[in-house]
Amino acid sequence: MNITNIPLTPKHAPAAIIDNLNAGLVPFIKGSPGIGKSDIVRQVAKKLNLKMIDIRLAQSDPTDLSGFPVRNATTGRMEYAPLSTIPLEEDPLPVGYDGWLIIFDEITSAPPSVQAAAYKVILDRLVNQTPLHVKVRMVAAGNLESDRAVVVKMSTALKSRFIHFTLETNLAEWLDYFAYPTQVHSDVISFLRFKPNLLHNFDPDSAEDTFPCPRTWDFVNRFIKSLPDDTPLLSKPHHLISIAGAVGQGAALEFKTALNQFHYCPSIEEVIATPETAKMPDELSQLYATSTMLSNYADDTNIEPIITYIDRIPRDRVEFQVNTVKDIIKRNPALEMNPKLANWMINNARKLYGNEDL
C-alpha cells in the first residue's frame, strides 16, 4: 500500500499539520473539491496565531513567486523585485500575530511553469535569492487527480518537497467538529444523519454544475437560516431551486422528500408536555429528525421528559436511543451530571458503550 493513500480525517488533520510545521516540513493536503481543505488550514493558522496568506497557484504567474525583473539604475544589471505577498527576512511581524502561514492552494491545478517556480520557495525558502522570513510556515493544498477536476500532473521534484496527506471526511466528525459547534440548522443535520452518503458525493462524470459536499451543505444551512421566521422552508418555489443550486438537483429532491416526512414528527412542545403519549414516528427519516430535534433542544429544564420519551423508542430501534443521548451530551456536556440522564446512562451502559460484558 502507498502510505500517501492512507486517509487523514478533519479531526486529526490540524494536529498532523501542526506537528509537521513544527518540524520545518511542508504538508500537502489533497482531497476532493469542497471537502474543507482551506478551512482546516485556517484552523491551524488560528491555533498557531499566524496570519494566513492564501496564494492561489492556478491563478498565479511564475513571477509572482520569483519576483519581477527590474533594471538596477546604478549597476545597469537586471534584478528581481519580489512581490509584497510573501514575507521576506527584513519584513516586520504582522501586528498581533507570531508569524505567517502561507497556503499554496490549487497547486495541482497550476501550470508546470508555476509549479517549477514554487520549488525554490517551498524547499529552499527563497524568493529568487532573497530568504523568506524565519517566521513563515507553508502548507500546500490541491485536488485529487482521480477527481478529474482541473489537475496538472505534478513533477517528482515538487512532490518530493512535501509531506503528503489525503483528506477524507465522515459524518460523525462533520457533526462533532462543524455542525454542532456552528449550530447548523437541524433540518440539514437530520437529513444527513438519514442520508450520510450525501455529505460528500462528488462524481467527476456528473453533468451537474454542483454537488453535495461540506461546503455546499453549509450554503444550504446559511440559506435556511436567512429565511424570515414566518416563511417556512420550501413554502416558495425558489427555495427548492436555491437548494438545488447549492447541492445539485438529485440531493435537493431527496432533501425535499425527507423534509415532507419530518412534518409527521412530534414537536418539542408535545414531547415535553406529554412524553408518555407523544406520537412516536416509525419511519427512519422521521426518527432521525426526532432524534436531532431532541438533542438540539435538550437542556436542564426539559431533560427529564426527553429521557422519558427516549425510553419509549422501540427496542428494535435502540440505536436511536443511544445516538440521541450521545448527541445530547456532545451538544451540552454539563447535562451528563443531570440525575435523570446519569441514571439512564447507568441503566443502559451496555447499549451506550456497546459492551455486553458490562
What's this, in brief?
By secondary structure, this protein is of the alpha/beta class. Helix content is 43%, strand content 12%. It has two domains: 3-167, Rossmann fold (3-Layer(aba) Sandwich); 171-353, no CATH class.
Q: Indicate the mean pLDDT.
A: 88
> What portion of the residues fall into strands of 2 or more residues?
5-15%
End-to-end separation in angstroms reads 38 Å
Q: What's the total helix number? A: 16
Radius of gyration: 25 Å
- Tally of individual domains: 2
Q: Judging from the principal axes of the Cα atoms, what is the shape?
A: elongated
Helix content: 40-55%
**Structural class, judged by helices and strands?**
alpha/beta
Largest sheet: 6 strands, parallel
N-to-C series of helices and strands: EHEHEHEEEHEEEHEHHHHHHHHHHH
**Spatial sequence of strands, sheet with the most strands:** 1-10-2-9-6-3
Beta strands, count = 10
Task: Describe the protein in words.
By secondary structure, the protein is α/β, with parallel strands linked by helices. The chain has two domains: 3-167, Rossmann fold (3-Layer(aba) Sandwich); 171-353, no CATH class. The chain is 43% helix and 12% strand. The chain contains 16 helices and ten strands. The protein has helices at residues 13-22, 37-47, 62-66, 112-124, 156-159, 171-179, 186-194, 214-226, 237-247, 249-262, 268-273, 284-297, 303-310, 318-331, 339-347, 349-353; strands spanning 7-8, 27-30, 51-56, 68-71, 78-81, 100-105, 126-127, 130-131, 136-142, 163-167. The strands form three sheets. The chain has a six-stranded parallel sheet, with helices on one face. Strand 4 (68-71) and strand 5 (78-81) form a beta hairpin. Helix 1 (13-22) packs across helix 2 (37-47) and helix 12 packs parallel to helix 14. The longest helix is centred in the last third of the chain and has 14 residues, at 249-262. The protein is elongated. The two termini are 38 Å apart. The model has no long low-confidence stretch (mean pLDDT 88).
